[in-house]
């Protein structure tokens, strides 16, 4: 697989201090530029920006789609890790007491797109999926 350009995503949070604790301490993302109401984080080489926007965070009611027997929250974002990094993160999140929307598990087991996945939320309710493939060439494998 070739090097990919880093993506950038900005997302709303209700509390910058809570975002710093979650993204910085729990997720282990280094902090970059910041101001009173926003902060950049290095999310596995990608730039994510938490913007304080309390009016945007609603009651948590969002959509979902059924995928391999689970209700996957929509919208969500995340990163595809190697399997070892995914397992390390799953262990770290479990030890930190993070509540999973979908517990760490293997999805599409035995199929071309088999992958490790987990879903959880930041303190503002933003859904995050972290996944890994034993063989990353299966990232876009069709069923």
Automatic annotation (TrEMBL):
This is Glyoxalase. CDD domains: VOC_like. InterPro entries: Glyas_Bleomycin-R_OHBP_Dase, Glyas_Fos-R_dOase_dom, VOC_core. Residues 5-133 form the VOC domain.
